[in-house]
Specification:
mainly alpha; two-stranded parallel sheet; 2 domains
C-alpha cells in the first residue's frame, strides 16, 4: 500500500508518451542524448586508468550521442524554430530513467566493476533504440520519421560496443547478448513487479495485522483484518502498476501482466502471516505468524539478491530490518 500511494502520486504530474507532440518528442530526444553523452563521458573517465581500450569505446559513444543531439537540434530548428521546449525523461510516464551523474562519478570498484558499466550501457542503448522506434511510429512528418528511424538503428548498433564486443560479433557473443536480453525482459515483466508486490504486501500489512492481534487477542478478528488488508493492498497495487507504465518505452512488457503479477504477489505477501490466525489458540497462531514473517523476509531478501543483484548486506538491511521495524510498530501500537 505504501508503494502504491507513492507510485500513484509520482505519476499524477507526468505526461503520457502518447500525448506528446512531434516537437515535444524531438525535445525529449535532445535532452536524452545530452544526458547519455555525459554519462558515457563519465564511464570513459572511470575506465581510463585500468581499461583504456574500453574507455575509448565510451569516448566514441559519447561523441556519437553528441552528433545525434546536433542532428535532432537541426531538425527541430528546421521544423519548429529556435526555442526548444524543456522536457526530460522524468516528465514522461513510463519513460526509462538514468542514474544521476553524481552517482556515476567515483571509483570503478564502488560502481561495481567494468561488467556493471557494460551492463548499464547496454541497457541504455536498448532503451534508447526502443524509444526511437516507438517515436518514429507516432510521427507523420516524413523527415522526422526518417531521422528517428535512423537513430533507432544507430542506438541498436551500439549495444555490442557497450558490451565490449567487436563490431563483427562472434556467434557466441550474439547468443550471449540474446540470453541477457531475454533474462532482462523476464526480470522487468515478472520479477520486478512481483518483488515490488511481495515487499509491499509482506511489510505494509505487518502493522495492521499484529496491531489488531495484540489489541484484541482474537484470532478471528485478526484474520478478517489480515484478509481485508491483503486483498485491498493487492487490488490497489495491481491497478497502480497497470496505470504507471504502458511498457511501450520502458520495455517492461504488458501492463496487464505486470498488474496481475503485482496484485497477486501483494495479496500473497499479506496472506502469509494472516492465515496462521485460522488457528484458534491466540499464542500458537501468533508464534506461527512470527515464523512465517521471518521466512517471508528471508525469501524476499534472496530474490532481491539473486534477480536484482543487490548485495546481501544491503538487501538484509532494506528488507529484514525494515520489516522488523514495521512488525515492532504494530506490536507496540496494539499492545499499548
Amino acid at each position: 500500500m505504501v508503494l502504491s500511494l507513492i507510485n500513484r502520486f509520482s505519476n499524477m504530474s507526468k505526461r503520457h508518451f502518447t500525448d506528446l507532440k512531434e516537437q515535444e518528442i524531438l525535445a525529449l530526444a535532445i535532452s536524452s542524448e545530452e544526458d547519455d553523452g555525459r554519462i558515457y563521458e563519465a564511464y570513459g573517465e572511470m575506465l581510463r586508468g585500468e581499461y583504456p581500450d574500453s574507455a575509448k569505446i565510451f569516448d566514441e559513444m559519447a561523441e556519437e550521442e553528441d552528433e545525434h543531439r546536433r542532428w535532432l537540434i537541426d531538425m527541430h530548428r528546421e521544423k519548429f524554430g529556435e526555442k526548444i521546449p524543456l522536457i526530460r525523461r522524468e516528465h514522461v510516464r513510463g519513460f526509462y530513467s538514468r542514474k544521476p551523474l553524481w552517482l556515476i562519478k567515483g571509483s570503478l570498484a564502488a560502481f561495481g566493476g567494468i561488467d556493471e558499466i557494460r551492463k548499464q550501457a547496454a541497457d541504455m542503448e536498448t532503451q534508447a533504440a526502443r524509444f526511437y522506434s516507438a517515436a518514429a511510429k507516432r510521427t507523420k512528418d516524413a523527415s522526422i520519421r526518417k531521422l528517428l528511424g535512423d537513430l533507432a538503428r544507430a542506438e541498436a548498433g551500439h549495444i555490442g560496443a557497450a558490451m565490449g564486443y567487436e563490431k563483427k560479433h562472434a556467434p557466441g557473443d550474439v547468443q550471449e547478448t540474446e540470453k541477457q536480453v531475454e533474462h532482462r525482459q523476464f526480470v522487468l515483466t515478472y520479477i520486478q513487479p512481483g518483488l515490488a508486490g511481495l515487499i509491499d504486501g509482506s511489510i505494509s500489512t505487518l502493522a495492521p495485522i499484529f496491531a489488531t492481534a495484540f489489541a484484541t487477542q482474537n484470532t478471528w478478528t485478526t484474520l478478517l483484518v489480515g484478509l481485508a488488508a491483503s486483498v485491498g493492498a493487492g487490488i490497489s497495487m495491481g491497478f497502480t502498476e497497470v496505470a504507471s507504465d504502458d511498457g511501450v518505452i520502458s520495455g517492461r512488457g504488458s501492463p496487464m501482466i505486470r498488474g496481475v503479477v503485482t496484485g497477486v504477489m501483494t495479496t500473497l505477501g499479506g496472506l502469509g502471516h494472516a492465515l496462521p490466525y485460522l488457528i484458534t489458540d491466540f499464542w500458537t497462531a501468533t508464534y506461527v505468524a512470527f515464523a512465517v514473517v521471518v521466512v517471508e523476509l528471508l525469501v524476499i531478501t534472496w530474490i532481491q539478491h539473486k534477480y536484482m543483484e543487490t548485495p546481501w548486506l544491503k538487501a538484509m538491511l532494506q528488507i529484514v530490518f525494515g520489516g522488523l521495524l514495521v512488525l515492532g510498530a504494530g506490536i507496540l501500537i496494539g499492545g499499548g
